[in-house]
Amino acid sequence: MSTEASSKTPSIAYLNPDGVARAWILISAISTPYLLWLLFRLQKFGWLVSFAVFVLTPFLVNYFLINDPNASLLFWAVTLIDCVVFLFLLKNSYKTWREPDFKNTQGSDFR
Fold it and tell me: What secondary structure letter does DSSP report for 43?
């Protein structure tokens, strides 16, 4: 008889899904302001506007306007998908950006 150990061993996400969710929320809470600061510093205002439209607006609409729990859950999923698509597009496009103008200025953070 053969058994597969990976299917019998519980993962960390199975043992503590609430902790995994809280860890992702903590990572997002730390990385999002840094990402927005970098986009502002690089003067990528189109990306900042698209973040506001595709990520921030659905979040605020869901938080303030939707009262039905099922609709709210569906809207959270849409917001999450929008955020993932935004980050995917940002990841694939930043390699084509030219170097910023401020890299040679005194006190520049660009390395």
Answer: T
DSSP 56: I
What is the token pair recorded at 97?
Answer: 């950006």
Q: Is 83 within 8 Å of 55 (Cβ atoms)?
A: yes
How is the chain split into domains, by residue range?
14-97
pLDDT value for 1: 47
Q: What pLDDT does residue 22 have?
A: 77
Q: Burial code of 26-36, b = ≥16 C-beta within 10 A, e = fewer?
A: eeeeeeeeebe
How far apart (Å, rounded) are the C-alpha atoms in residues 78 and 71? 11
pLDDT tens, position by position, 57-79: 888 888 888 888 888 888 888 88
Alpha-carbon distance values, 90 to 14, 57, 59 (Å): 31, 18, 19
Rounded Cα distance between 48 and 16, Å, is 34
Alpha-carbon gap, residue 61 to 63, rounded angstroms: 6
pTM metric for this prediction = 0.65
